[in-house]
DNA sequence: TAAAACCAGTTGCATTTAGCAAGCAGTTGA
DNA sequence: TCAACTGCTTGCTAAATGCAACTGGTTTTA
């Protein structure tokens, strides 16, 4: 429990919570990949997180109010991790980081198509997405008329994956 | 030289560059505090960075294209560190991180007034500020009619400092 | 009903990174 | 001539990271 801060600067305090190489990765996978269980986060990890690091980060993020942990009623050993309002509000930061990464770093098409949509959709799309995350993670009531941003991001990603796979097979 | 990446995800790649507890602090001090020399960064550091860490981060950030290092013509031992287009474009990320930190973390008034102005000014202000940073760091031509965002942020900060100092003295 | 697979982590150990305090050689201004 | 200043470096300890194997229990499958 780190209760002493280096300074009261908002950038610094944000870095004290999120300034390491794994915390935002874990939140990203819960947020954009809808991974809610330990094994899902571990085995589908694009970056190959180690189980002890994952356990440590989940614990820390729960302690700091970024995630909640509940028992899964369908399985005595399963735990469900959910976003909180605090982590849902990271969407604009993710969007800006994604846009910056796409501009300056060697991103892959598959893994950046969602960042592209988020960038192009701008703040109105971010707000819609955050509202959906509240439905998914905070049990907020859902507006049935709104098309799902989550589904749109997922569909765009799967389309790129399928297209690239088809192209790879055609090239063989 | 870390040339192998954990994944091509833009969030991950951004974290590989900036995902530690000091890199963004150093860039923040150069950007918002206009600290251009090693000792300035070391001695005015709000968070108390150690000299070896600062040296290491400056070196890494230069290697990765986030900063440039030039000799100061006025002093044979002085080095001038400058932002690059890549780091100037972090302004929206800083703005979103500042807004998030202000909302959820125990920020101090003095150190968050600039984040507040940046949040309230929105993207048009960020663009103006980035253009000013280009003038300061990339020797871009300056538009003499534009009022300086940098000066406005600095004035607001100094005003809060002065106000709080006066209040503290009055309370004695 | 017994084996296999799955569940959220732990444990032990080696490597890497962070952090502190002191020091360094060269430069500058008084 | 000397004190203050320049950008770092060194030696050391503590903490974080990373890998591989393992744990005690639960659920599914043959």
UniProtKB/TrEMBL annotation, chains A, B:
Keyword list, A-Z: DNA-binding, Transcription, Transcription regulation
InterPro entries to which the protein is assigned, alphabetical: HTH_HxlR, WH-like_DNA-bd_sf, WH_DNA-bd_sf
Protein known as: Transcriptional regulator, HxlR family
GO molecular function: DNA binding
Residue ranges constituting the HTH hxlR-type domain according to the UniProt record: 9-109
Coiled coil: none
Keyword Transcription: yes
Domain of life of the organism encoding this protein: Bacteria
Origin species: Xaviernesmea oryzae
